[in-house]
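Dear colleague,

Thank you for sharing your sequence with our group. We've completed the structure prediction you requested, and as agreed, I am returning the results in plain text so they can be pasted directly into your records. Please verify that the sequence below matches your submission; if there's any discrepancy, let me know and we will rerun it promptly.
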Amino acid sequence: MRLAHVDALRGFALFGILVVNIGYLASAYHGTGLADPGFDSPLDSAVRWFGTVFFEAKFFLLFSFLFGYSFTLQLASAERGGVRFAPRFLRRLAGLFVLGVLHAVLLFPGDILTTYAVLGLILLAARRVRPRAAVRTAVILLAVTAALYLLLAAGVYLAGDAGADPGADPSVAAEAERAMRELRAGPGAVIGEHLGQLSEFVLVLLFFQAPVALAAFFLGFAAGRARALGDVARHRGTLVRLQWAGFTAGLLGAVVYAHANLVASDGAYQALAVAVDVLTAPLLAAAYAATVLRLTQGRFGKRTVAVLGPVGSMTLTCYLTQSLVCALLFTGYGAGLVGRVPPPGVLAIAVALFAAQVVASRWWLRRHRYGPVEWLLRAWTTLTWPPLRRAEASEA
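Please find the predicted structure tokens below.
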């Protein structure tokens, strides 16, 4: 059974992921520690700060939490239907992995689907763990990851490299310019560049995103087992507390993280900022979730669900479509605009693209039960041909 407010939350998470991912797709300087020298106006800087403080390293946590929550719904559905869950879920993970590999090679090396497919194996193995144990596991994962970055910061400081600024190395700018030339070339050059970038993204996934995403998986799993999102109105007090904690400690940590990434040149400080982010970004993500959930229950609840819910019902299709459209805009697959659109323009494209997806998703779901990619994944998972059109479902 789908929960409309959870779909709305998922749609909101997808918007945040788009705002983050499009920055990497629009400029090879993004994530290097250097601002694109072609766009250095105060407005460009303000947009970079806005994206880093409010979006970067937050929304994949929210999406990961919802992955863990949805896992419990799928598990409960299989138990009610007397279906063997593990084989189905393994096929689902295999399907996600294949989609993720194609996505990473063809469209965007920063793919998250392959990570979810691998981490999903851990979630499957731990499916009988109690909610409290799942929460403890999440806390331990976050604490250990933060501690490792603190140790890295101490090591860099003691080694005397605290002031090392990778962005000051001329080779960093030269590499970014080379990457943009390749991305503006033909499809073969684009794919080659994606393959070359995979090793960098894999390191980020292994040492930052994967352990933090797994922690969010377990928190979502615990929330699902406790049916915490089944009746949001009952948890109004908890949601308010999450907002207070998240929008204070979470935003303070986000400012430290942004300052280290956009301004500071101290290597030890940058590692310290990541440790701070590991501990505070989940609070800000929780505050976002609490805010959206409260909106779905308030005066504008129906409108919020109507706007965000359809996108949240077909997130896999929309996620891949976002990368496809951005690849057509920014790489040699199409217009080759990488490095040629200022940050405000990139943000405007993200908003316009998401707005188009809101309209398209509502139109599609009036006629169909699933998004196109969701339907394909479901067919592979169940080894059946589920009815796609709503008319087919009513006749079945």
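Summary note from our side: Residues 73 and 396 are 24 Å apart (CA to CA).

Kind regards,
the structure core
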